[in-house]
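REQUEST ID: PR-0412
SUBMITTED BY: lab tech R.K.
PRIORITY: routine
TASK: structure prediction, single protein chain
INPUT:
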Amino acid sequence: MSEEKSHDITATQLNQLLILSCSIVLGMCLVSAYAWLQLPDDIQIPVHWDIDGQADRYGGKAQGLLLMPGITLLTCLLFRVIPIFEPRRHNLLRSMTAYRITCLSVCMLLFGVHAATIGSLLGFFEINAINLISLFLALMFIVIGNYLGKVRSNFLFGIRTPWTLSSDLSWNKTHRLGGKLFVLAGIVGLIGQLAPGDNALLLLLGTLIPAVILMVVYSYLVWRDDPDKHPF
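STATUS: complete
OUTPUT:
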């Protein structure tokens, strides 16, 4: 496939991704619009929580209802723009399924947190913000983990260490391992929802942080023994 043809296909796929992800933003805006009509003008809406799930910073009506859709819109635009600067465009094209899944998973995470926060404000249910966020993160890691092994070497998306970027063997093996570890971290995060207290996020991070360290060390070990590694 010619470079020009690959560029056209990538641009088309990215534009489709932008439209789809922006539809999630539209859904968030509709939720905010409904809440705007229901909530009093002087309400203080939580916009940040501490590690115990308690709100420690509040914003006014506009900030509380528009901040998360704004962050999600910025995320959508970044996922669309960043590939323009990718030197290994052909590899990004081969990774487009995983790239799309990651973008949509992040957007759905933000949508879920936004909708749950507003639902709590409207009295539909009570939430523990940290446990809720850990639940959505766990689901996101499981979804992304199932596609991580399909990501091909690039500078902008994936597990990027000096060794994965200079060795295709290190990249491929590290991403296959990383996919399994992401799924494992997600499963632990889901199980953590059953733990007493507010320990779900701690269990998720307690699994994820060692997993990241393991992936970095593993990427170096594979690179070290790869006779076809590229110079830095």
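NOTES: The first strand starts at residue 45 and ends at 49.
REVIEWED BY: pending
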